[in-house]
Write a structure and sequence with these properties.
Blueprint: E1 4-13, E2 17-20, H1 21-24, H2 32-39, E3 43-46, H3 53-68, E4 77-81, H4 92-100, E5 106-110, H5 116-130, E6 136-142, H6 153-156, E7 162-171, E8 176-184, E9 192-193, H7 205-209, E10 216-217, H8 219-240, E11 250-253, H9 258-268, H10 279-282, H11 289-299, E12 308-315, E13 319-326
Parallel strand pairs: 4-5, 4-6, 11-12
Antiparallel strand pairs: 1-7, 2-3, 6-7, 8-13, 9-10, 12-13
Helix pairs in contact: 3-4, 8-9
The chain binds acetyl coenzyme *A.
Length: 327
């Protein structure tokens, strides 16, 4: 039996500030009704005083470590999926390593936007297939509210802040991660960008005036590609494992828009109870959305041993991916 990667602990953390759709009606010209019907979002949590990406990531990580019944210095590696780090350097992963006191662990951030957690688990899986004794912390953590233009109603109603984490290790049993499938198409990157604050452009008043420090998205175009890519990668993962769609016990998909999730459910012919939904409570939290959903499903007792889980994500870059596992 080859080494298989299993999740032995999950955790999540949300910031303190609850912002409802009604609250946003006072910020931009929008309505609770528009946001609900177009996106499925009812509310989101945003960072408040003293809260940062690494703060949320470390809180989620501590919960996952506690559930895994390991000590921080048992960790060999920390991977944080994020595109909204506290700062360019040090990485969020290093800040988390310090906060946990995970002295033995290597640490790095991974920039794959909303697919960050699936990309991170995929890398962890490769390490563990080589050495099943390794213990790896994979986090998805974002503070999108600091990269959101609060006068742009086409984006500001969509996003939330948060973090989710999982501790993985290896077993020689017939369960755990079965396959991972990663994709990207950089030629479409311009449809969803933060143009400024990198090293390509100096930070000037002109650049800031253009709003290049914020997420800019051509929503309709992104929607079109997202549904196609998510469906294709879901079929790819099913076919790699000889699964039929009715063998999926739970679909944990990136929570970007309820209409994308409904579309995917219909295309795969899944019943409503097989698609995990929490976008109503948190909005789109990018790399954090799948690990938050995973933690909720886990802690609520929804996940049973042997269940077939399919994770799928799509985000800026574009990046997308899938992961099939037996719980
Ligand atoms: N409130 C009220 N009206 C609004 C709002 C708002 N917040 N935002 C846009 N509108 C208006 C528009 O101005 C437009 O008005 P017009 O017809 O007079 O021009 C109308 O509503 C329709 O706008 P559309 O952009 O056509 O709305 P659409 O149905 O496409 O929904 C949305 C927009 C929700 C953004 C959708 O396109 C979407 O979900 N896209 C995909 C998002 C996604 O998956 N992103 C990937 C991951 S995110 C990441 O990587 C960080």
């Amino acid at each position: 039996m080859p080494n298989r990667t299993v999740i032995i602990g999950t955790g999540s953390a949300l910031p303190c500030r609850l912002v409802t759709n009604k609250d946003l009606e006072a910020v931009v010209e929008t309505s609770d009704e528009w946001i609900r019907t177009r996106t499925g979002i009812e509310q989101r949590y945003l960072i408040g005083e003293g809260e940062t990406n690494s703060f949320l990531a470390a809180r989620a990580a501590k919960k996952a470590i506690e559930m895994a019944r390991i000590r921080p210095d048992d960790l060999d590696l920390i991977i944080v999926g994020t595109f909204t780090p506290d700062m360019p350097m040090p990485s969020v992963a290093c800040l988390v390593q310090k906060e946990l006191g995970a002295k033995k662990a290597g640490a790095f951030d991974l920039s794959a936007t909303c697919s960050g957690f699936i990309y991170g688990l995929s890398i962890a899986d490769k390490f563990i297939r080589d050495n099943r004794k390794m213990k790896i912390l994979v986090v998805g953590s974002e503070v999108l509210s600091r990269r959101t233009n609060w006068s742009d109603r086409t984006t500001c109603v969509l996003f939330g802040d948060g973090a989710g984490a999982a501790v993985v290790t290896g077993v020689r049993e017939d369960r755990g991660i079965l396959s991972t499938h990663l994709h990207a198409d950089g030629s479409l990157g311009g449809l969803l960008t933060i143009k400024g604050l990198g090293t390509a452009q100096p930070v000037t008043a002109e650049m800031l005036g253009l709003g290049w420090q914020y997420i800019q998205m051509q929503g309709k175009e992104v929607f079109k590609y997202a549904v196609k890519a998510l469906e294709a990668v879901a079929w790819e993962a099913l076919s790699a494992n000889n699964w039929t769609t009715d063998q999926i016990d739970l679909l944990l998909a990136h929570q970007a828009n309820i209409r994308i999730l409904d579309f995917l459910r219909e295309r795969l012919g899944l019943s409503e109870d097989k698609v995990f939904i929490n976008i109503n409570k948190y909005g789109n939290t990018s790399a954090a959305s799948i690990p938050i959903a995973l933690d909720e499903a886990n802690r609520s007792g929804l996940l049973k041993p042997g269940m077939r889980l399919l994770m799928v994500a799509f985000g800026g870059g574009f990046t997308w991916g899938a992961l099939a596992m037996r719980w």
